[in-house]
Amino acid sequence: MIIEPRMRGFICTTSHPEGCAQNVKNQIEYIKSKGAVNGAKKVLVIGASTGFGLASRITSAFGCDAATIGVFFEKAPSEGKTASPGWYNSAAFETEAHTAGLYAKSINGDAFSNEIKKQTIDLIKADLGQVDLIIYSLASPVRMHPTTGVLHRSVLKPIGSTFTNKTVDFHSGKVSEISIEPCSGDDIENTVAVMGGEDWSMWIDALKAENLLAPGATTVAYSYIGPSLTEAVYRKGTIGRAKDHLEATAFAITDRLASINGKAYVSVNKALVTQASSAIPVIPLYISLLYKIMKEEGIHEGCIEQIQRLYQERLYTGNEVPVDDSGRIRIDDLEMRSDVQEKVAKLWIQAVTENLAEIGDLEGYRKDFYNLFGFDVAGVDYKAETNEVVNIESIA
Ligand code: NAI
Ligand code: NA
């Protein structure tokens, strides 16, 4: 069929298999162009189908020559209905990996569940023996707790008082003021349950209990800090509490991995357009201004450039991994540069509907958003018939 983007609210309900495949190929080409990284050889990526997790899988495979197992939660296609983009990304990734002679298998299901952990453990036992890198890159609005059966929902709210600031509807370009009521009840606990470190811990404990972690194994989860502009709704809001918990969990995991000399890190990444971030109020306006400045300065990066730098300049330099005062890896260094932040703060004050297309990179934001779903990708013929039913080789 001919597939076009179909928007419902802030999400796109269709995705384009060839556009997604082209995105994956472009990321692979980028990684190859940067040369080999002497890194992990057997990698488990949890949240491997889109955003930073997909970039991590691609960097592992095509930068480090690693075998990869990817875990994700994506919608399979059916006749006349497209899959979710992460499905097409993973199908394309496996095809490319297999063509290159690399081991790659995928597991599609709820990573928070005991069943999917068990499936993953069985696959590692059967095929890889042990893993030496585990990337934890889940972004989800809900988590069914595997022990209590409680369904936790995360919220993106300030804590204590109402937050009022500018935001943009990036589809229409309309800048408006938004007020977000503070969280209440169990909002903080629920958000920490979904996006904090408990599930990461459970994964690592489960792998360790089965002796599936290689000596010196490393695990990395992703976090965000961002500027004071977004602090009330992000880092000092409910999601920030979850990130605090995730960051504290890294130390707890490192302690528990002492016997195998393993290490857990949190890497603080740059703000980027992903399905997860486009749902957060205020962030899209910040990102569109940030993109403008970073592109002008020639320091803009996407997920793949970020993760390539994480591997080559942080994790696998042959020296100790550089961390900040709080023990975190920082690849948000360019975003957080004071000259960049000062410029963004000035633009923030000026930003209105009438000037945003000019002072901000609204176009770049939109393009990245459409790209997430495989649309607006150079070299793809969107007028051509395309087959929406695409299999992931290892799942089929
Ligand atoms: P994303 O939405 O692109 O990727 C989320 C991944 O998690 C997908 O592979 C999805 O299939 C998987 N997933 C979601 N629920 C699942 C479940 N129940 N079971 C199995 N897989 C599931 O998100 P993104 O942006 O790459 O986020 C990954 C991490 O990076 C998050 O911790 C996020 O907070 C962090 N981060 C994101 C930044 C951004 O600007 N996008 C900036 C810094 C950190
Ligand atoms: Na991800």
TrEMBL record:
Against InterPro entries, the record matches this protein to: Eno_Rdtase_FAD-bd_dom, Enoyl-CoA_Rdtase_cat_dom, FabV-like_NADH_b, Trans-2-enoyl-CoA_reductase
Residues covered by the Trans-2-enoyl-CoA reductase catalytic domain: 81-316
- Coiled-coil stretches noted in the UniProt entry, renumbered to this chain: none
Query: Enoyl reductase FAD binding domain spans which residues?
Result: 323-385
Q: Does the keyword Oxidoreductase apply?
A: yes
Calcium as UniProt keyword: no
Q: In which pathway does it act?
A: Lipid metabolism; fatty acid biosynthesis
- Chain sites annotated for binding substrate: 224
* Enzyme class per UniProt: oxidoreductase
Pfam families, per the entry:
Eno-Rase_FAD_bd, Eno-Rase_NADH_b, Enoyl_reductase
What range does the record give for the signal peptide? none
Biological processes annotated in GO: fatty acid biosynthetic process
- For the site labelled Plays an important role in discriminating NADH against NADPH, the residues are 74
What EC designation does it have?
1.3.1.9
The family assignment reads: Belongs to the TER reductase family.
Entry-linked HAMAP family: FabV_reductase
Q: What does this protein do?
A: Involved in the final reduction of the elongation cycle of fatty acid synthesis (FAS II). Catalyzes the reduction of a carbon-carbon double bond in an enoyl moiety that is covalently linked to an acyl carrier protein (ACP).
What is the recorded name of this protein? Enoyl-[acyl-carrier-protein] reductase [NADH]
Q: What is the lineage of its organism?
A: Bacteria, Pseudomonadati, Bacteroidota, Flavobacteriia, Flavobacteriales
Query: What gene is this protein a product of?
Result: fabV
